[in-house]
Amino acid sequence: MTEADEHMDFDLEVEPEDEGQEALETELGDPCLVVDDLHVVYRVIGGRAKREAEKKGAEIHEVEVKVPFHKRLLQAGRRHVGAVSEVHAVRGVSFTVRHGESVGIVGVNGSGKSTMLRAIAGLMPPKSGSVHVSGEPSLLGVNAALMPQLTGERNIMIGGLALGLTPKQVDEKFDEVVDFAGIGDFVYLPMKTYSSGMGARLRFAISSAASPDILMIDEALATGDAAFKERSKSRIEDVRSNAGTVFLVSHSISTIEAMCTRVLWMHQGQLVMDGPVHEVADAYKKFVRAQRPGMGPARRRALQRKRAAEEAAKKKAEAAEQAKADA
Ligand SMILES: Nc1ncnc2c1ncn2[C@@H]1O[C@H](COP(=O)(O)OP(=O)(O)OP(=O)(O)O)[C@@H](O)[C@H]1O
Predict the structure, then answer these.
(1) Mutate which of 54, 111, 118, 251 to test ligand 1's pocket (most atoms within 8 Å of Cβ)?
(2) C-alpha distances out from residue 184 to 65, 148, 252, 279, 322, Å
(3) Which fold has domain 3-64+83-326?
């Protein structure tokens, strides 16, 4: 497997449960989100972080940090921690989204998809430009409020409160959240004992329970089985039919095609295409195929083996999870 393949970690296969599925067209309302010339920059310290970002194709600048005289005096004799660099993760992105839209975001690894969602959710300050939102965006992960050392039960309460529900409303939704996440009695154990799939499913269940105005889902649907995906799809349709908006980042293009009406394609922090789902998905598929021109039978088999091993590991983890839940 080449490094290029690792950076092109997305799936052009049609997942069986996505076959023939299309997102419902709903009547669109007024704009609920305006992203205007958004730039987001990370500061990284030290050579290793810089190399990691470079490997992902990020645009990086060395930064000259002026340390005030009193700090230099205080720091005298301390270990040098390395140069500061800036990773320009989102570069001048602008778009408008209306109530009721379901927007997919595609792009190769490191193209800035997650960073943009974090900026829309208010978790990353923009370097310049602006994000105007009407309503409360809920990034899957309940705005990162969940705490691994606490039980799922406590986290449902904390996450629900973070999303603006009252304690009574959280209590009323408790069973529904647990059922949706499919975690059974695990809800009474600390979240750090959960598999990553269980954690992601619980976060999705909590963040969508509050019927948010803007629901943002970053790769969570990849962690569930077909039944979970089906439940998620109908939850997404519920949010949209209440005039909410959904953002979905996924490496599975068939999931995007099944659940979204519009797609934003990001590359190296910029928006390269924004349009109806099939138009952008087709262009993106062509781009992906063109990036892998030399994929002969041996590399294709290696990729298939990798997928099969991942699938087997996922099934094994699910079976173990089920066995624990049944015990
Ligand atoms: N915490 C961070 N500190 C420094 N650089 C970061 C950080 N998070 C992301 N980056 C860099 O910002 C750029 C955009 O990353 P981001 O995770 O937003 O891309 P992505 O499209 O979501 O990638 P993926 O598909 O792999 O999740 C990348 O170059 C990445 O290395």
Answers:
(1) 111
(2) 51, 17, 28, 41, 9
(3) Rossmann fold (3.40.50)
